[in-house]
């Protein structure tokens, strides 16, 4: 689909009343054409594309044999910490000691829910009482952020307080001020590397401040969801800050719990989730896990260990993912730049890793853009999804997920989104001009 002509040129806010009326009429025509095209496209969730999943089909012929390198029979019960062969590979990649890494089943999100549940029912290593016995529990949430984190908090009835998320991580001074003053603040969510949805990476300096800052709650815990640590889109691979090491070095060894998984590395529905923490936190986690589990899927652990071989095998595999994904993100950047770059009605992130592009449109128009796109056959994540309770106070943020569609579909969907952005912006500016 070719992009409609958008004259007069230049920033929309700078147009005269007559020029703006002309532009609005053009965009209404372009949108009518878009609706008539009968599109059915989806940029809602960051799922691996089928050709990414195909990269791991050799897993279906594994494992070879039923014993790991130590002779453990993976078919039997036991081993709550997970198979050591696989833990050694991912401990190197995640920068943690093998003995401080647990390998579980296919969902790190389930591990996050389990940790919250154990804290809620029993408290953590440094807790005076279960979190459920506290008068109030609050989490710091950098925004825009990951909607499933917020859903978990809502499910538990945990309050939220937001801080801005920047290119180098959360506004750490705002976090430090909140955490030092309020003992109800028990935790914080953070996607530190190629954050969802901004693509920003938490710097060493910010991580060091998070690790060392005073906290009114002695059991303040950072949920360090390193889901995209290995998902690079360029050869310039952003390193992940070592929050666990920094926390230990600054006298807060139990402050951080790290999560990661192979969900977007191998099979999303048959991967391996990981948890890391201090030795005491790992023992605490395994102790509670053992009340309802006898061991993870060690057969799957062994097939993954054999499939990768070592950490370099994972790195080589991720370069194949990059070859598939990078052109899609390049298309999004090209089209947003060509259609919106000079209009001054939108800004967006230019991620070098991860699964998303964060698009900010004119205040008060994000929900309108999403509704227009839906009516034109393009599904987007709901406006506000990257904020707790789905409420973006400025109604401006939209998360784009270009990973699953094929490149031509990514291009068509992005073209459609830009038409909706321009129409919604012209409507708003025109309404403001006309009083």
The outline comes out as: globular
How is the biggest beta sheet arranged? 8 strands, mixed
Radius of gyration: 23 Å
Using DSSP, what is the number of strands?
Answer: 13
CATH T-level fold name of the largest domain: Aspartate Aminotransferase, domain 2
CATH architecture of the largest domain: 3-Layer(aba) Sandwich
CATH superfamily membership of the largest domain: Type I PLP-dependent aspartate aminotransferase-like (Major domain)
Terminal CA distance reads: 36 Å
The helix/strand order is HEHHEHEHEEHEHEHEEHHHEEHEEH
- Integer average pLDDT: 96
Output the CATH class name of the largest domain: Alpha Beta
Q: How are the strands of the biggest sheet laid out side by side?
A: 2-9-8-7-6-3-4-5
Per-chain topology:
Layout: H1 17-36, E1 41-43, H2 50-54, H3 84-94, E2 101-103, H4 108-122, E3 138-143, H5 147-156, E4 159-166, E5 169-170, H6 172-181, E6 185-190, H7 204-212, E7 221-225, H8 243-249, E8 256-261, E9 273-276, H9 279-289, H10 298-308, H11 311-340, E10 346-348, E11 357-361, H12 366-375, E12 378-380, E13 397-400, H13 407-433
Parallel strand pairs: 1-12, 3-4, 3-6, 6-7, 7-8
Antiparallel strand pairs: 2-9, 4-5, 8-9, 10-11, 11-13
Description:
With 435 residues, the protein is of the alpha/beta class. It folds into two domains: 12-52 and 315-433, Alpha-Beta Complex (Aspartate Aminotransferase, domain 1), CATH 3.90.1150.10; 74-309, Type I PLP-dependent aspartate aminotransferase-like (Major domain) (Aspartate Aminotransferase, domain 2, 3-Layer(aba) Sandwich), CATH 3.40.640. It has 13 helices and 13 strands. Strands 2-9-8-7-6-3-4-5 form an eight-stranded mixed beta sheet, with helices on both faces. The protein has a three-stranded antiparallel beta sheet with strand order 10-11-13, covered by helices on one side. Strands 1-12 form a two-stranded parallel ribbon. Strand 4 (159-166) and strand 5 (169-170) form a beta hairpin. The protein is globular and about 75 Å long. The chain starts with 16 loop residues before the first helix and ends with a helix. The model has no long low-confidence stretch (mean pLDDT 96).
